[in-house]
Structures are given as C-alpha cells and as structure tokens.
Structures
1.
Amino acid sequence: MLRQLTPQEARKYTEDDPVRPHLSTEFRTTQLREMWGLFEDKYAEYDEPRVEPRAVVCVAYTSCVVASEQELAAHPGDQVATFYTVWSYDRGAGRQIVNQLAQHTLNTKPQVLLLIWLEYSILETVQHLDELPTAAKCLTTQGWC
C-alpha cells in the first residue's frame, strides 16, 4: 500500500536516507515536495502487517527539469515530478515504491507532463562536458529552467 507520509511520520525516517541525509524533513515535505512510504497490505496472508514502511521515496514537483538539489527548491511547480531519493528496508521494495508512485502520479496529477530521476552526482563528478550523457548535456547547456 502506497501512502503519503505526514511530516511527523517523515521525521522518523529522514535520517535513514543513505543518499541525501543532509536534507531536512521540512525540505522534503514543503513547497510541493512529498515523502511517500510503501507499506504492507493490511490484509497480508502470512504475518501481521508491519506498521513501518518497506521503502520510502521523496518527490518534488517542479516547473522544469532540474539538475541539482538547489534547483528543487528554486523551481516549484506542477509539470515535472522529480524523484530525488529512495531507500528501502526490504529487498526489491525501492523499485516497487518508485513504480507505484510513478503510476499513482500519472493517474492523479494530469498536469504532470514528465517523470524524472535526479541523478545524485552526475553533474558533480564528470570532468568534461564530452563525458556527459546527452540528457545531462542538454541540462547544462540549454538551461531547461
């Protein structure tokens, strides 16, 4: 079961983020940014369902394609769903939550035209523009925002 986390719930899991632990719960849950949890179905067949999430994902809704954490905050909007971090507590749950939230977003937010994943360090680690993938090259040279 996919469910948006309240800021109080989100606070419990923010420190578990292995990629962007420096982002605060407030950053993740304000200005068109959300945290979602993937929970076991309450009708689980074998054991009592856990109350803790199997995985957590953060998404920001932006007005354009962004290439950094700073741009997540600078360009709030509703046209692009930017998934920027995910972590799981169960094997395979990270992929499952991203797929379910992508489908949920497409079904419930018709204004969203594009789903993207913010790559953690591609723009920071590549030394030469020639080494960048085409999409990242467009981001750095075209200024999509």
2.
Amino acid sequence: MTVRSTLPAPDSGDPAPPAGAWRGPERRGPRRAASGARGAPRTTVDVTAVVVAHDGERWLPEVLAALGDSTVAPRRTIAVDTGSSDATATLLAGATGRCLDRVVVADRRLGYGAAVQAGLDVERDASGGPSAWIWLLHDDCAPAPDALARLLEQASASPSIALLGAKARDWDDPRVLVEVGLSTDRAGHRATGLERREQDQGQHDGVRDVLAVGTAGALVRRDVWDALGGLDKMLPVFRDDLDLGWRVNAAGHRVVVVPASVVRHARAATTGQRRLHAARGRAEGIDRRHALLVMLAHAPAAVFPLVVLRLAVATLVRVLGFLLTRRPVRAADELAADPSTATATATATATATGTATATAQPSSRTDCRWPGYCGAHPCCWRSGC
C-alpha cells in the first residue's frame, strides 16, 4: 500500500423536493470552514471527518460545499484520494485550508476501509491526539448542514451508542429514500425495508436500533473503531458496512439510525457510475460474493454447516432463475459467489478477527433488538425470530 500525505495548501433541472426537504448546495465550490450555512461562527466538535475520493470529480464540488456549510465543524477533516485519474486531486487541493485540513494520496486499488484507516493513521501524528468520533464520508455523499450535529445530539443521549447512521436520499431526486438503516435476509440479500423508489414522507423518521447503517455519513466512536479494527480490509467495497454494524452489535454496543441526519448519496459504485479498482469483477458479483462471506463469517459454529447448505441451495435456485429469465451474466455472478468457495475464507476471517463464532451470542429471542430482521442478528439463528 502506497500512502503519501500532502501538506496543507495556502488559503486560496431536478424535480422539486417536498416541503422542508434539503436539496443540497447550489454553488459549485467549497466554502470556508470558519462559518456555517448562514455565515455564523461554528462550534468545533471532537470529530475527525474522513472523505474517501476515487474519480469523484462529478460529485466532489457539492460534497465539499456541503462540508463548508455544516453547522458544526469537525476538529479535523481529512481527504484520502485513492489514485484518482480525473480532476479529483485538483478539487481536493483547492479545498485544502478551507473545508479540508489535509489530503492523503493512496494507491488506486485501496478499498474504502483501508483508505479510511490511511487517513486516520495520519491523524495519529497530529497535535491533540485522535478525536473521540469518526465521521465517514464518500465523495458522492453530500451531508445536510445539520447532519453531523444531529448525529452528535443522538450520540450524547446514550453512552451505549457506538455507531450512528444517517437517512440517505437519492442524489438526483431527494424525494426518494435510499437507505434508513439496513440488514440482511437469510439468503444474504441486502435489506433496507424500503419499497423501490419509496418517497420520503417522514414514515421512517423514528430513531431506532438496527443491525447496521451505511458508511456514507456514518458516525462511529473512535475507541470502538480501534477495538474492532475498523472496516474489514477483506471487504474493500460492498457489505463492509453490514459487517461493521454486526460486529459493533456483537461487541455489546448499540447501532442506531438517526433519520433527522440526512445525506444525499449517488451510490456511484452500485449504480455503475464509477469503475471499481479495489476489487475484480462486476459490481453485482462482488456484492454477492461479499454478502455470502459476511453471512458465513458471522454464523455461529453450531449451525455453520446448515448455513453453508442453505446458502448453497439458495445460490443454485437463483442461478436457475437467472438462466430461465435469460440473464446469463447474473447467473455467472451468482456461481462465482458460490458459498462453498467462501467457506474457508469466512472461517479464517472469523478466527483472525475474533468475531462470529468466537463472540458470545444472546441467550434468548428476547435479547434481539430487531424482531423485523429475520436471520440478521445472531439470536435469530438460534431462536428464529
């Protein structure tokens, strides 16, 4: 892994959203971090924001402007550029000294979790030591002005909360919900609890415990991040958020979604707007492979063979379904993610990280905080909630 830190530079027709919805900044450049959206001095909070960028020139101007508009200022804001070949480096350099404190240049093949850690490693040498919280951001994720403040307000309400996620709306149409917490079903499919293109009318606005939250706009306690080793480097893209939330819950902490904190997220990798370099293969195939890996890594030892068998049968059924509907590429992706090929990797991961089978499981169904997420939490494997 190649990491280089740059020194701070000198200061230098969408559909109308619903009433009260945040659309995002209209200008195309970053703003000074000395003031919030209305020009008033901002309170500095004990947070390190890490923005990972990879060929993100299309979204970065609005993301940087959104950071400048935040009603509270992170103690440090570090950008990590994973070998971008577009104008990303220029945009980040222009924002350094304004809404960014430092830019770290890393290898093009570095995954999201490793890139975040590269930024945090630079922070260790900074005066004042590490911040108490880490704010995870993507280069295609623009937070609302009060997004960070809302997360911190909820975090202060309960010391047991270690990971908080925002409500994600679509980048182009902020009326559409993308994610309000997430889970997985027994076949390893990502479950958001949302209908396709479901519009935000406040129907999911209650703060609640969830299995996991997306990393776009997530706030995580630094001591918990360090204790768990951050995001799993074996999951450079996709499902790293699910794995982190699972491990945070298993360690006895709470994971909550805070819908009052809002981000707009383009999901560039998922929607094919960005080419992936951190992992090989099509996005769908990578996602499915990592989904099975996470399911296997967190399966209790007592039912591990049954989980492998169930996932293998589900994979076969999906392959046949794709072939019958004349989608051979999707069938190939499914075969490439065959759970039998991921079993050894998952076992090694669980052993190395001390998660999954080594983690104490809840003793009964009543310990489960997510009765609507069948098969997601370890207690579901034992009690079938």
3.
Amino acid sequence: MTRLGITFEEVALAAEQITQEGEKPTIEKIRTNLGGTGSNSTIAKYFNEWKHQNAAHQDNQQPAVFSSNLVDFALKRAWDQLNQETANKIEIIQKEAQEQINTIKNTLLVTENNFNKLREDFNQLNENLNQVSAEKELVLLDLKSLREEHRLLQERYQALDEKYTEMQHVNNQHINHLIAAHNHETAQIEEKSKQQSNDHEKFISEMKTQYEAERQQHVLLVDSLKVTNQQRTNSLKALENTLKEKEIKIIALITENKFIILERDSVLAQLTQQENQLKWMMDKSLIDSKVVDKINTIPIMTNALEKLDLNMNQIMSDKFKEMNDSIKQLRELKVAVIDE
C-alpha cells in the first residue's frame, strides 16, 4: 500500500522541531526530518506558508498555544505512521491469507478430484458387483435346470431299465417257449422219420420176400408210394413254412431288441453328457454333496447296464445258433426224405 502525500501540519511540525533544536529550517532538513518523503516543491509550498504564518503571529502567539499545536502535530504524525504500519501489516496479512486461501483451494481441488475418482471407482465396483450377482443368479438357474434335467433323465433311465428288464424277461420266456416247441417238433419229426424209416425198411423186406407174389400189385404199390411221398412232401413244406414263420418272429424280435439297444445307447450318451456337465459344475464348487453322490452312481449304473447288455447278447447269440443248427438239420432231413 503506498503512503499518502505529506501535509502542511507535517511540514510545520518538522520546521518547529528543527527550530527548537537551534537550527534554521530548510527544505532539505525538513525532508530529512520527514524520513526522506515528499517532493521538494510540496515541502517548499508548505514551508513558505509556515514561514508566513509564523511571521504574522510570532509576536502574539502564546507559548501554551504553540505547545498545544506542536503536540497535535506530533500526535497526528504518530497516528499517520501507525496507520501506515498497520496498513502495511494488513497488506502483508492479506497477501499471506490470499496465498493460504489459494493453497487451500488447490488442496480442496485435489481432494475433490480424488473424491470424484474414488466415487467413480466405487460406482465401477458396484456395477461389477451387480454384474457378478447377476451372473451368479444365472449360474444358479442353470444349475437348477441341470438338476431338473438330471432328475428327469434318471426317471427315464429307470423306466427304460424296468422296460428293458421286462422285455428281457419276455424275450427269455419267448425264447424258452420257442426252444421247447422246436425240441418238441424236432422229436416228433425224428420219431416220425424213424417210424417212416422202419416202415420203409419193413416194406422193402416184404417187397423182397413177396416180390414175385406181388408183382402184379406193383403198379398199385407205386401209386401208393407216390401218394405217401406227396404227403411227406406236403408235411415237409408245412414244417418249412412253420420254420419260416419262426424265423420271421425271431427277426422281428431281433429288430425290437436292436431298437431297445439303440434307445438305451441314446440314454447312456445323454447320461454321459450330463455327467460331464455336472462334473464341470462340481469342479466349480457349485454342486452340493448330495448331487455329487448321485453323480457317482451314474458310472455304476452305466457299467451294470453294459454288462447286462453283454449277457443278453451272449444268450441271444447262443439261442440263435442253436435254432440255426436245428433249422439246418431239418433242411438236411428234408433233402434226405426227398431223395428217398
């Protein structure tokens, strides 16, 4: 803050002080007394006014009045100096306060930026949390759906297993019935063939012993043999038709068995796929212990089903082989009868 210009009172007080000190006041001395302030022209102006006033009232001026004016000038000068010092201190304090305010503003700006950044980070973390929660809910829904599909597949597997067991029991009964009927028919055919063979041998023996006696009846005997042969041929054809019908039934049974096996393989494939999915879920620690126990039973059920399938295939293969051997024997017997 700049100092105000000098006043008349200040110049007059300085001149009075110089005079009391026994010296003659001059512009330079007054300026030095004032602390080097004020221009020479201003000091000269006020100094001339003081000299005129001092000359006009010197004779009539009382010492008390002079002393009172001198004290007033001294007080005013001290007051002005105090105001100047106070103004300087206030200016310094204002500058320091402004610097502190600027520092606080900068700190506040940095703090606000940091707060905004933290708030953005918090919002991002909150969004990530919401996203993770949504993904968790989707995974739980997928797990629930997989459990439901697994339960349905298990129920379907149990139903198919029961159906497979029932079909196996029916197939075994049917095969046993076919084997029994085949054995019975084979025994009948063998007995009939033996009887026919015995009759034929007896007939040949009688023919040899009575050949000459029954020569005249040869034509009738030949006709009788033709009729008998025709009957045997018809009987063999009927037997062959019966065997063909049985072969057709066996083929139908084999076809039905293949469909059952294909359906069982489809269920096994679905169970295997479901087992892999559940194992993946188990590795992600999203399946409880009860579901894990159920999963562990799937390979045991699959192995049992495969073993059962092997046993059934072996039994069917053995039965079909026996029936093929029987059919082959019947055909050979047919050829032998025809040749006879």
4.
Amino acid sequence: MKKFIFSFVIISFTVFFSCRTDWFEGGHPVDAAKPEILQLPQTVTADCGNYTITVDAISPDGGELSYQWYEIVDGAEILMPDDDESTMAASKNETGTYEYFCEITNHNESRIVTRNISTTIRTQIVRVTVNQVNNENNGNETPGGEGNETPGGEGNETPGGEGNETPGGEGNETPGGEGNETPGGEGNETPGGEGNETPENPQIPEDNPPEIIVNAETPEISFLSSASVVDCGEEITLSVTASSPDNGTLSYQWYKKIGSEFVEIPAATLTSFSPDTSAGGIFVFRVKVTNLNESVNGNKTAEIWSNEISVTVLAGQLTVSAQIINQDMEISVTTEDKLVTVTVNGEYELYFWYVENVKQSCTENAFVFDATSVKAGVYEIKAVAQKGILFYSAQVSIKVQ
C-alpha cells in the first residue's frame, strides 16, 4: 500500500510540472502591447445629416485590432453597436455639439504574450459641431411666380391685354403713359414694388438675425516625447509641442500616474518637464493642454490630453539574499553588474525555474535574473531539479532597490 501511495505522488508531481511548461517564456510576464494611435481628429464640423470619424491605429506587436465607438450623452457613455470598425458613421438632424470616443483592443495569442492576450485603450474625446443647413430662397423668385414673373401675369405682359398692346390704344402706347409703361408704374415694374424686388421675408427679420455660438477650439498636439530608459540619477526631459487653431492662449499641466489615477504635478506647467529619477522603477506621465480664447461667445476653453509616456529608471543598488528551503539541494548565488545568477549544484536530470511562480524557459542548471529591466521590489526565484522520480527545490529572494 505504501508503494502505491508513493508512486501516485510521484506521478502527480510529474504531471503537474509537465502541464505547467507553457506558463511563461522569457524573464517576466508579457502582456499584449497597447495599440498606438497614429491619427485622430480633435474636432469635426458638419452640417445636419450624416458624417463620419476615422481613427488610424497600429498594433506594435503584430496583434489584431478591434474597435468599439461610444457616444457621450449627458455624461453617460452610450455604446454604438453598429460602429465596431475604425470609421464611425453618425447622423444628426439637430444643431449642437456631440462627443464620441473609441475603445481599441489589441488581441495577440502568439507565444510572445504570456499573460494578458488583450489590451484595450481609449482614444481622447472627439467633439463634432453640427450646423444648420441654409434653406433661404434662391434667385429672383417672388411669392406666387417664377423668375421675373409678376403676380397675376407672365413675362412683360400687362393686365388686361397681350403683347405690348393695352386696351384703348394702339401700338405700344397705353392710356396715360408712353412706350411700355404700365398703369401706375414704369418699365417692367410690378404693382407695389420696383424692378425684381421681392417682399421682405417675414420669418427672418433683418434687424434680428439668429446668434451663432462659437466655442474655443481644441488645441492640436504635433510632438510628444517617447518612452525612455535611464539610469538612477540621470537627467531626462519630457516635452510637448502644441498649437491653437483659433489663436488662443495655451497652458500646460503635467500629471504622474499613481495607482490607476493621474495626479497633478505641482509647478509642472510648462511645455517641458524633468521627472525625478532618484529611485528605480517604471513611471508613467501625461500632459493636459488647454486653449483659452476670450473672444468667443461660447465655451472659452477647450483641452486635450496627450498619450501616456513611460520612463523606466534602472535600479541603482542591488541587494540579494538567498534562502534554501530544501537541504537536499544546494544552490549558489552570484551578482555582477546587476545580473543575478542562481546555480543548482550537483547532478540532476531536469531543471525547472520560476519567477514569481511563473515558469521560465530556462532548462539549464543555472538561471540569470536581469535586475536592470525591472522596477524596485522583491522577486522570488524558485529552482526545481529532478533526479529519477524525485524532485528537489530551493528558493532565492532578490531585493531590488
């Protein structure tokens, strides 16, 4: 009975480790890359009716992109089920300003992605201003007739006769007048008016035209610093270049990501900003650009948020401590230039390595942990060695600061 239980345990261990070989390939977990937006309009002006918005994006790791558009109505995000492509089509029959944004997802199931196979970002808000179509009368048309036609007659015809002849006379002469003159007027003049004039439009009084609301326009970003990797204490400057389409005054405010929120950085209000690099880690920043236009009669400010900028600060000091869990297996730890090498001593048949319980691709008796590419923290490395049907393990704790 003991032999049966022992054999069952050994088989279970073998199945467990063989089934976990695809946990991770490489030194650290890898997610699907964030989609990169190449082009997206900030504002769109359209007449009542149909209009479109297009976003141009790419997948940095060769994944497949998908899209979903939303409209913001009274602060609520309304999903647009028919708009799941890079181009969104909408139709509005009322004037006003409408807001939209798009969620872009990069889906990558290749072997380079070892953790999250999908990563989603949101575009900035696109504002669409819809104007009223002009429906005023065209040409010289007058009520009740066409062209130069006068009420109650055609062409140059005068009331009560044909051609240029009028009753009670011969030739072109008319009673009480000469030539082509008609009673009570001159030339081609129509009753109650002169020339081709039309009666005033009672619906749009000339002395009270409708007011057109003009808002400050959204600023445009033409340059933004890219992601950077620096050593501890190395100086780096992030910068942005923007312009105001309506010649307003631009202002800037930089933000740092803490947790899931972006927090305002005091005094970082210029086009450039130098972050603190005294401690190792990965830090994320973005800038908000605001356009102020005092000359408009609507909203006097409009703003735009930049994309995120990541700054990786390499660890300046490395502390390594080793803790052996299983005394039947000996290991050694060495450090050189921020590289930590963990070696299993002794003769074994198979080797398995784990970082933070994620299986690595290494199958040798030595594993190298690169501390230059990680942020400050504590990392656990576990080594498992197999000899015959027996398994041995040891664990190393690496502190990066």
